């Protein structure tokens, strides 16, 4: 009988779980996995041949083979399944064992599970894992939050498994309770924003500049070597080059239906931002655009009812336009990260997470979907200023935003003229304009509130609260 004790266990051997576990085994740890689906267990055993990894079919066997305190990660779909798996495990576990939920769980669920498991003497880490299947296999960015003593026990494993930037592992203890899942959720909100901004840039370059997919692919590759260098820019360039089939000229991208799906993390980011009163309009707009995209039939009908300049007929110099779009994307990327970081700074106080924002930027530099050159600058901006909330006006970004602003105005003008939607770009610009406006027209809003609801207002020339019997 196999008496070996395993260092790390994984429940859920889908593509993420299997790859993460193989990564653990690669790093010299004895890795054990289980799944309700016997085929997934077989797939792990096949792929893990010759490695110190084993797939087993029952939770009893799984738990019995793990060294104590057991370190068990769950990579199962977020929601009720997580609770079900935890309930199944509980009678088999001992005090001080560790459960790591590595899925995209909602932070409220994570808070509840953390408290529940604490009562049962089980240590819980709600952990964001980013990087997709490839990241899980080769090095993801990992965002663990919850029981700090549990973090200390799994730290050596997670540090070897995580992506590295200049030898620095892309994992750190995020903070108490649900902070790890909260940070991962905001990561995904930023991800939504960047993805939509790239989509808008592609649309404008194609429809205003008449650039081919092949040329845009080269331009994206070029951008990826500069200040826009990032995983999402890199893969977008590759997507633009992908042919429908080998030997054919058509591009796969032109055949993909323009309806985007979503699993909820972007929406949750917008919801919590609204609750905390932190503006993240570019992320909200990205969620909204996915929602609008889903109304395909309505869009088809409506497209016949309004006349706008046919953008496909009026082409400008595509190469010159691409130079401007690079500035637009840089401006909008900075604004999107700024919104996400601002939200985290507020959540840190309101939800008592006590986040180290420099640390968050540091572990996002590698492995995750929003990894980008820009994150090193963001890390420095937060690292050198305690309590920094919004980074837009810092020395790291001020001049670049000033320099790029006119390109955003011009490109949006072109899009507006031609009826090309660019909601994310527009929100980024207006967010910037609003924050750099000493005065906003919200005096009118206050007056309206007082007019119809006696909600009172403050004055700029006197202290106190005022109400007027308005002439009606
Ligand atoms: C990651 C990704 C990952 C997942 C998204 C997709 O960081 O590795 O964010 O978690 O691909 O959740 O989200 P949508 O289905 O909502 O686009």
Describe this entry's structure for a reader.
With 472 residues, the chain is an alpha/beta fold. It has three domains: 8-177, 3-Layer(aba) Sandwich (Rossmann fold); 184-435, N-(1-d-carboxylethyl)-l-norvaline Dehydrogenase, domain 2, CATH 1.10.1040; 441-472, 6-Phosphogluconate Dehydrogenase, domain 3 (Single alpha-helices involved in coiled-coils or other helix-helix interfaces), CATH 1.20.5. The chain has 19 helices and nine strands. The protein has helices at 15-26, 38-47, 59-64, 80-89, 107-119, 132-138, 148-161, 179-207, 213-224, 231-241, 265-276, 281-294, 296-302, 318-350, 357-363, 374-383, 398-418, 423-435, 442-453, and strands at residues 8-11, 31-34, 53-56, 71-74, 98-101, 123-130, 141-146, 164-165, 168-169. The strands form two sheets. It has a seven-stranded mixed β-sheet with strand order 3-2-1-4-5-6-7, with helices on both faces. Strand 2, helix 2 and strand 3 (53-56) form a beta-alpha-beta unit. Helix 9 (213-224) runs antiparallel to helix 10, helix 12 packs antiparallel against helix 18 and helix 14 crosses helix 17. The protein is globular. The chain starts with 7 loop residues before the first strand and ends in a 19-residue tail after the last helix. The model has no long low-confidence stretch (mean pLDDT 96). 6-phosphogluconic acid is lined by residues 104, 130-132, 188, 191, 261-263, 265-266, 368-369.
């Amino acid at each position: 009988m196999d008496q070996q004790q395993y260092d790390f266990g994984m429940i859920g051997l889908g593509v993420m779980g299997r790859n993460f576990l193989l990564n653990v085994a690669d790093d010299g740890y004895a890795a054990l996995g289980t799944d309700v689906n016997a085929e997934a267990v077989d797939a792990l055993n096949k792929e893990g041949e010759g490695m110190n990894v084993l797939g087993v079919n029952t939770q009893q066997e799984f738990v019995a083979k793990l060294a104590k305190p057991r370190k068990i990660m769950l990579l199962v779909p977020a929601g009720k399944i997580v609770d079900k798996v935890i309930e199944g495990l509980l009678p088999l576990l001992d005090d001080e064992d560790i459960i790591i939920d590595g899925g995209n769980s909602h932070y409220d669920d994570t808070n509840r599970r953390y408290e529940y498991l604490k009562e049962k003497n089980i240590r819980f880490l709600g952990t964001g894992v980013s990087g997709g299947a490839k990241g899980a296999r080769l090095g993801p960015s990992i965002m663990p939050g919850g029981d700090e003593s549990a973090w200390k026990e799994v730290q050596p494993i997670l540090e070897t498994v995580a992506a590295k930037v200049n030898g620095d592992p892309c994992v750190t203890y995020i903070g108490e309770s649900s902070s790890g899942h909260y940070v991962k959720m905001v990561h995904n909100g930023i991800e939504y924003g960047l993805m939509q901004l790239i989509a808008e840039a592609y649309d404008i370059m194609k429809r205003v500049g008449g650039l081919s997919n092949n040329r845009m692919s080269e331009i994206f590759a070029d951008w990826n070597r500069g200040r826009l260098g990032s995983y999402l820019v890199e893969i977008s360039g590759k997507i633009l080059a992908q042919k429908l089939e080998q030997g054919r000229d058509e591009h796969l991208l032109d055949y993909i239906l323009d309806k985007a799906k979503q699993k909820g993390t972007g929406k949750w980011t917008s919801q919590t931002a609204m609750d905390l009163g932190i503006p993240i309009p570019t992320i909200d707009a990205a969620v909204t655009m996915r929602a609008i995209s889903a109304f395909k039939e309505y869009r088809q009908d409506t497209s016949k009812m309004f006349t706008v300049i046919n953008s496909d007929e009026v082409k400008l110099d595509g190469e010159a336009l691409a130079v401007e779009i690079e500035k637009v994307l840089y401006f909008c990327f900075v604004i999107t990260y700024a919104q996400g970081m601002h939200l985290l700074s507020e959540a840190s106080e309101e939800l008592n997470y006590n986040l180290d924002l420099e640390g968050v930027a540091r572990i996002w530099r590698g492995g995750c979907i929003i990894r980008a050159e820009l994150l090193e600058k963001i890390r420095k901006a937060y690292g050198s200023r305690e309590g920094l909330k919004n980074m837009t006006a810092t020395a790291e970004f001020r001049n670049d935003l000033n320099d790029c602003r006119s390109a955003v105005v011009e490109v949006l003008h072109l899009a507006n003229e031609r009826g090309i939607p660019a909601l994310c770009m527009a929100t980024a610009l207006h967010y910037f304009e609003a924050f750099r406006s000493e005065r906003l027209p919200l005096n009118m809003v206050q007056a309206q509130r007082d007019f119809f609801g006696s909600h009172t207002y403050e004055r700029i020339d006197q202290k106190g609260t005022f109400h007027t019997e308005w002439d009606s």
